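hey m, so remember when u said the tokens were messed up on ur end? i reran from scratch. heres the input so u can diff it against urs
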Amino acid sequence: MMKFSVTESLLIMSIPVLDTNSKQGITMSLNRFRLYFGACRLCVGIVAMLLLGACGGGGSSTSAPSGNLTFTSCTVPAEQASCQGSISWSTLNANAPQLLLNGVTLSEQASGTVAVDLPGDFVDVVLTDGMLTLDSVTFRGVCETASAWDGAACATYSIRLDERATTPFVEDGTTVELEVVIFKPFGPGPFPTVMFSHGSTGDGSDPSRFTITSVTETVAKFFTDRGWMVAFPQRRGRGQSGGLYDEGFNADRSFYSCERDVTLAGAERALADLDAAVEWLSNRADVDTTRMLAAGASRGGVLSLMQLVRHPDVYLGAINFVGGWLGEGCGDYLDVNRTLFIAGASFPGDSLWLYANNDTFYSVAHSQANFDAFTSAGGLGIFKVYTRAPGLNGHFLTNDPQLWGADLQEYLEALP
């Protein structure tokens, strides 16, 4: 016999007008109701348990541990072994946090900041929770200019001079002077000399970058170690040089222009600056004017080749690091780059072209095609391609002398 709850019985008894069959129908409906309602109560219970678990309910579930590191580097004075930097870290839900420097525990606190003595060589910092790595960074102290890490200290490798070159340019009623940073070997001169030209500032949209003095210390050390002096002229409006930086901008100067005529006019202005710089440099008593090279990176690379043609009686050759003027995809880049490289083809001596894979401005295929056009027009050169460490931009090849050093040494030894 079917049993009903008190509520269900009262519901059946409250319908006296219905016949027996109707009451039996209601009874059958209530039985179905009880079945469905019971099933729904079970489903609701399961859903509630799942939601509680997902939301961390019941106090039995926690989020995975996490953490992050930040650091502040420093400058290591010449002839010193270290400088004081700092590391900051924070963790969340970590049960056994540890901060390690080259495998040595610095702290077991969940967060904080510590001062560290940084050498001029890279150190590894790792933030862990037990066996789990939460974050890691690699950084170092930066050796003072004209010094480099020798394994024990930042050893001075040259004398740095910050000079001003006179020019024939007058802007706003003022004679323009160019900043020229010189890295000079120790000992008496005169020295064979490299004039190294800098590149651009990305896309030209950040004026704060115009006033950064551009030098490449890896290049400076390579040459001064071999008895060469290196000069880094800053073109008009760059670094601490006077005048307006105007090497091909769009109408409102918000970006570099990608139009052929505007861009080529900008390149000509840059060449005029280098003409003034090399004339000033050639008049220095510490320069051996019989042994001079043009060199540069990015825009400076193609400018170095064009300098050979403008001053064939001054230079023995040129070294072009990842050279070009407009990055691929920038409007008339193909025409502009090809035009400028071919313009340097009439120099009768060898040039050295150094490029790298994974260059965000100039692919190896594009640069090889520029080299082929250069040689087809009569230019003489050697084209080399390197691969930097994974994740590194090939456009900054100058930072890796271990890659190009042997080829550059061979080029220097073959000079007349």
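this time it looks ok to me. The longest strand covers residues 159-171. if urs says something different then somethings off w ur setup not the seq
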